[in-house]
User: Which sequence fits this backbone?
């Protein structure tokens, strides 16, 4: 087999890729060996005897499959966890979603006259202080207040 190092180097420069991604037509090695100038190599590229191989990517197929399984709770056990609880789900995000739900419920209660404005203010402040774990606890509290 002939040494095509210089042709490979020239072709890599012309194709603007790495030397490992240069493909030579195996049937035309003699013709490629005769190409000693950049112009010769350029002509062979135009003829299709020298080509650039496609870049290899990393397949997302396995990742998609895993994400699909995790969406319905699989592959989430103790052995699969690396971060601490607070790293896996941000406590602040949990707080935000909880407080938003409580405030939405308080607004609804006030608009439907289940509670008056001063009670709304008190409950709003209690919610901010972390008094209620969820909307259900808030509703139970309001029901007990009415009794």
Assistant:
């Amino acid at each position: 087999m002939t040494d095509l190092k210089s042709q490979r180097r020239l072709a890599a420069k012309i194709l603007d890729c790495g030397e490992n991604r240069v493909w030579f037509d195996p049937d035309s090695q003699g013709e490629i060996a005769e190409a000693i100038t950049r112009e010769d190599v350029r002509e062979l590229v135009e003829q299709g005897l020298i080509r650039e191989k496609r870049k290899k990517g990393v397949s997302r197929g396995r990742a998609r499959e895993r994400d699909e399984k995790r969406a319905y709770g699989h592959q989430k056990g103790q052995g699969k966890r690396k971060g601490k609880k607070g790293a896996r789900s941000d406590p602040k995000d949990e707080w935000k979603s909880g407080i938003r739900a409580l405030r939405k419920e308080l607004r609804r209660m006030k608009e439907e006259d289940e509670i008056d404005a001063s009670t709304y203010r008190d409950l709003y402040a209690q919610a901010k202080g972390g008094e209620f774990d969820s909307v259900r606890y808030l509703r139970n509290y309001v029901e007990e207040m009415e009794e």
Observations:
- The mean pLDDT is 95.
- The chain has eight helices and two strands.
- The radius of gyration is 34 Å.
- Residues 91-111 form the longest helix (21 residues).
